[in-house]
Specification:
Helix content: 40-55%
Largest sheet: 5 strands, parallel
Strand order of the largest sheet: 2-3-4-1-5
Number of strands: 7
Order of helices and strands: HHHEHEHHEHEHHEHEHHHEH
Oligomer: single chain
Structural class: alpha/beta
Distance between the termini: 64 Å
Strand content: 5-15%
Amino acid sequence: MDDNKTVDLLAIVRDSNVGEVLDKLDRELVGLAPVKRRIREIAAYLAVTNARKQLGLEASPPSLHMCFTGNPGTGKTTVALRMAEILHRLGYVRKGHVVSVTRDDLVGQYIGHTAPKTKEVLKKAMGGVLFIDEAYYLYRPENERDYGQESIEILLQVMENQRDDLVVILAGYKDRMDTFFQSNPGMSSRIAHHIDFPDYSQQELLTISGKMLEQMNYKLDASAQVAMADYIERRIRQPNFANARSIRNALDRARLRQANRLFYAASQDNQSVNTDDLSLLTASDILASRVFEGGNNTATPETAT
C-alpha cells in the first residue's frame, strides 16, 4: 500500500449526487434537525468507507440495518425513501427501491404459510430497503399459535447473510420497539443505527400545513391562518394525534367543506368561480371541524378533523 496515495473525498460525494438527496430531504421535511443530522452522518460514514476501499484500507461491509422510532406522522417513511436513495448512490444497494410492509405481509395464518410469505417479500426487497412498520407486532408471545417468530427467524438469517444486498429498517413507537428488542436480542444485535423521530412543535405543524397547501395549489386567508393555528393547538391535545398525518387529514376535510361552500353559493347565485375562489380556504372551512365543538377534548378519533 502506498502511504502517499490520496483520494478526493469530496469527489466521491459529488459524483454520487448524495448532496442532492440530502437537500431534497431538507426541503421535504420541516424540523427534525436530529434526524437530518444522523442521516448526514451516515452518508458521510459511507463516503469515507468508500474512500478507504479506494486506498486499499481494510473496510469490511458496514452494518446498515436501522430502527426508526417515533409517533405516527413524523416522517419515518419519507426518510426511509431518501435513505434508500443515499445507499443506492453510494453503491451499498443495487436498486435503491423501498418495499414497505407490515405484519400482515409477512406472517401467515396457518402452518406452512409464513415462510413463503416472508421469503416472497424479501425477494421483492432484495437490492433495496425493506421497511417494516410497527415491527413489534411480529412478536406475539401471548399467542402460542402465532407464526410471527418464524418470520423473525427468516429475517434474522437474511439480515446477517445478505446484508450486502438488503437493508432492513424497523419502525414503530419507541417504547414498543424497546420491548421488542429486549425479547429478540438477535434482532437488536443486527440493528446498527437507531434514529428517534421527535414530535413536531405547533409552529412546525403550522408550517407543514402551509407547505401541504402550497403543493395542492391552495392557500389560507388571514382569518383561516389564525383558525388553523387554533385548530393545531386543540388537536395535539386529543387522542390519536398523528402529527403531519393529522394535519393532512384536517386539510382534506377543509377542502371538502370549501367545495361544498362554493357549490352551494354557485347554486344560489348562479355565478362562476375564479382561480382565487377555488384556491382560497377561509376560517369557516377550518372552524367547522368538530375539534372546536364542546371544548378541547371531545372529538373522537374518527371525527377530530
